[in-house]
Amino acid sequence: xxxxxxKILGAYGTKAKGFGTxxxxxxxxxxxxxxxxxxxxxxxxxxxxxxxxxxxxxDHISDIAYIxxxxxxxxxxxxxxxxLPQTIQALKEHFLNDIIxxxxxxxxxxxxxxxxxxxxxxxxxxxxxxxxxxxxTPVRTDHTVPSxxxxxxxxxxxxxxxxxxxxxxxxxxxxxxxxxxxxxxVECSFSSNMQTLAEVSKHLTPKLLFQALKKLKRDDITLYIxxxxxxxxxxxxxxxxxxxxxxxxxxxxxGDFITF
Length: 260
Ligand SMILES: [Zn+2]
Ligand SMILES: [Zn+2]
Known about the structure:
Blueprint lengths: L4 E6 L12 E5 L2 E3 L5 H4 L8 E3 L5 H13 L8 E5 L1 H10 L22 E5 L6 E2 L4 E7 L7 E7 L2 E5 L7 H9 L3 E7 L7 H7 L4 H7 L9 E5 L6 H11 L6 E2 L5 E3 L1
One zinc ion (ZN) binds next to helix 2.
GO biological process, one term: negative regulation of glucose mediated signaling pathway
Organism: Sulfurimonas autotrophica (strain ATCC BAA-671 / DSM 16294 / JCM 11897 / OK10)
Protein name: Cyclic-AMP phosphodiesterase
């Protein structure tokens, strides 16, 4: 895997046979969102140490439960779960809470003295270094729960991943003002005749997406689309073709790579 690439472990907005939910692999140890780790990575999931979350919805966090459970006896490193303070709070209260699933932040690993899970909070618009050349910056998005997208940069070239959002205003301003961003991964969950559902659940349709993208002032951006609900895939793909204008969007599938 090249350093300036991201592997799509799960490209879709919900789980179905043959369709994984949202997860992006940045390197052997680090992912954004944990919708589809085990199926995509198999034994290599053992090496995941850092999960950066966009928000607390199940399709983005579900494999946290299984990655830690399945490889508990083999792991020797803590699994770091990193996200906005409200996202971390939601996981502690509603997910790994000793009711839905064990609170692994209290349990040491069998193989070493370290704790199984550790939480870290991050803050919007602050740049976090993964290593000398690589940064991750959370940016505000617009969803039904507190949420963020991420700008991922390697050697000053980057991609912005929106994750779930309704408004693209902040995202488009960010891309217009940061010429180092070369690619945009944007969600499109529902077909355009489901606009009411998209509005209340704060997601996009092809019509809304390409309306919003009219404010993008850059013509050098590679546009990727993810988080399609698999049951709408055919209809959404046809609509993207109808609404795309001059854009040449690439619809992501599980296993694809983004290079930038
Ligand atoms: Zn989602
Ligand atoms: Zn969501």
